[in-house]
Amino acid sequence: MSHANVKDPWQEMLKRFNEAARRLNLDEGVWKILSEPDLELKVSIPVVMDNGKVEVFTGYRVQHSRAMGPCKGGIRYDINVNIAEVKALAAWMTWKCSVVNLPFGGAKGGIIVDPTRLSMRELELLTRRYTAAIAAIIGPDRDVPAPDVGTNDKVMAWVMDTYSMHVGQSCPAVVTGKPLLLGGSRGRTDATGRGVFDVLQHAAHRFNVDLRKARVVVQGFGNVGATSARYFHDAGIKVVGISDVRGAIYHPDGLDITKLREWVAKNKFVVGFPGAQPVDPMEMLTLPCDVLVPAAVENQITEENAAQIKAKLIIEGANGPTTDEADKILEKMGVQVVPDILANAGGVTVSYFEWVQDRMGFFWPEAEVNQRLDEIMHRSFQEVADMAQKHQTSLRIGAYMLSVERVAQVYKLRGVYA
Question: Dihedral of CA 70/74/79/80: which sign?
Fold first, then answer.
């Protein structure tokens, strides 16, 4: 799969936001406020590498909106990180938190680095120095980071420890996605994939897609893609195609996801899985299927390939996988797209649960976490679908309208401080 940077993700976000704002007849002042991030921070991160040389990495933290509450958003370690991407991801977090009605604003962070090329020691030093550089703007009541591409619970443990040392007390609520022993929540690892599965069930029912006969293609086999595929497989839904960063595989009769996960645990990548045929990753999105789940990176469905997509239903497990031009093509084709700010909101929802549990010092069993998640995803899907139907627009613009309207109401109630 490609990490296409031909489209500026910040401009792609603004196109959808502006369309929603126009349809809502949004107050001009609030429109201006939400068209720019509240805060953008760029930091230089010196690290003494294992060879004794000093390398300086570039990192960012962007807070798009603090109106609804503390900012919330992941930290991404990726060689393709850039400020436009981080700004867009921060804004998408604002809309995502608002869509599922969480008391959070949106933020995002990132470092330009290939984490696979760093030793564990170098990765820890990088994380701790980055945390120290952004410590003044994060915190349980300010901005709560989480894992994203290239980071995990171990990285969050380092962030939490570094921040705790700076404030002089243990502060588990400063990040989410932590190990359980440090205040993590049960159900967090599966949360985004489980939310994708929840949304697929509701969308299939609403748009008359028979999941007992459906064929699903999943682009991406990281946490979101692999977890989603496992939920599909366990529910008896046929997953015919899977891809990862190295390649893609296809089987028209369905892949055994349990065995595939075991294969990837040993071999790291999906290519070579016995019984499956390799396919060109660039053709992954246009394979014959009923449901397509892009769960990789931004700008994967574009005007160049949208017309070749055969799926009736797209569930966006990734952030920003579909460009604005592609949306227009898909809408004309009658393809229903459940947008990222709804479809992958399961992760931030359970992150919210983790934050609440850390602040209470009381932790819920996994069954309770999953039940609360399922209820929120169901309610949010219905609210988005109803908004889209009411205004005769796509689910994406319906989701944006719902979220922007909520944030705008908060600004109206709070006023603008002068």
Answer: negative
pLDDT of residue 283: 87
Buried b (16+ CB within 10 A) or exposed e, 62-79: bbbbbbbbbbbbbbbbbe
Identify whether the C-beta of residue 413 lies closer than 8 Å to the C-beta of residue 403. Answer: no
108 classed as catalytic: yes
Span 140-162, mean pLDDT?
96
In the predicted structure, residue 178 carries a pLDDT above the cut 90 = yes
Cβ contacts of residue 63 below 8 Å, gap of 6+? 37, 38, 39, 71, 90, 105, 106, 107, 137, 143
Cβ contacts of residue 308 below 8 Å, gap of 6+? 285, 286
Greatest Cα-to-Cα distance within the chain, rounded to the nearest angstrom: 66
DSSP 307: G
Query: Checking phi first, is residue 411 left (phi over 0); if not, alpha (psi -120 to 50) or beta?
Result: alpha
First CA to last CA distance, the chain? 48
From 378, 375, 377, 395, select the one nearest 386 (Cα to Cα). Answer: 395
Catalytic site residue from 108, 178, 238, 312? 108
C-beta of residue 109 within 8 angstroms of C-beta of residue 76: yes
Could you give the CA distance from residue 164 to residue 276 in angstroms, rounded to a whole number? Answer: 48
192 in helix, strand or coil? helix
pLDDT in tens, 309-326: 999 999 999 988 999 999
Kind of pairing between the strands at 71-78 and 238-243: unpaired
What is the rounded CA–CA span in Å between residue 324 and residue 326?
Answer: 5
- Residue 47 — left, alpha, or beta (φ > 0 → left; ψ -120 to 50 → alpha)? beta
Q: What is the pLDDT of residues 372-381, one digit of tens each?
A: 999 999 999 9
- pLDDT-derived band at 6 (thresholds 50, 70, 90) equals low
Summarised one tens digit per residue, pLDDT across range 46-71 is 999 999 999 999 999 999 999 999 99
| DSSP secondary structure, 214-273, as one string | -EEEEE--SHHHHHHHHHHHHTT-EEEEEE-SS-EEE-TT---HHHHHHHHHHHSSSTT-
In this structure, what are the phi and psi dihedrals at residue 215, rounded to the nearest 5 degrees? Answer: -110, 130
pLDDT tens, position by position, 298-311: 788 999 999 999 99
Region class of 346: left (phi > 0), else alpha (psi between -120 and 50), else beta: alpha
Q: Which domains does the chain have, with CATH numbers?
A: 37-172 (3.40.50.10860), 191-343 (3.40.50.720)
Place of tokens 């300086």: 56
